[in-house]
Amino acid sequence: MKYFKSSEFKCKCGCGLNCMRDDVLEAVDKARGIAGVPFVVTSGCRCKEWNEKQGGKVDSPHLIGSAVDIAVNGSRPRFLVVDALLKAGFTRIGIAKTFVHADMDYGKDPQVIWLYN
After folding, report:
1. What is the CATH topology of the domain spanning 9-115?
2. Around Cβ 2, how many Cβ atoms within 10 Å?
């Protein structure tokens, strides 16, 4: 990876779990290059316990290393991140006020964008 360290995607609880899929890492690295702005990873791989504490769904793609959340702090950075993620091949995007979620969970509906409350 050109823009990230593997440690940025480890479970944030401190358990050390890092189960990110290579295709997801390659795509997020590509997206970072396209966006031209830093990506701060707020969530990558999650263990079951940390996922529950974060309010994640039981079948969250974070549990299988298929998802990444990237911090955003305004409409322009949000646009740059979403645009780059789409261009890099992500087709499942969740948009929140402070982060953008992207995943490649092939067991779920493709080509969707949703909003978080």
Report:
1. Muramoyl-pentapeptide Carboxypeptidase; domain 2 (3.30.1380)
2. 7
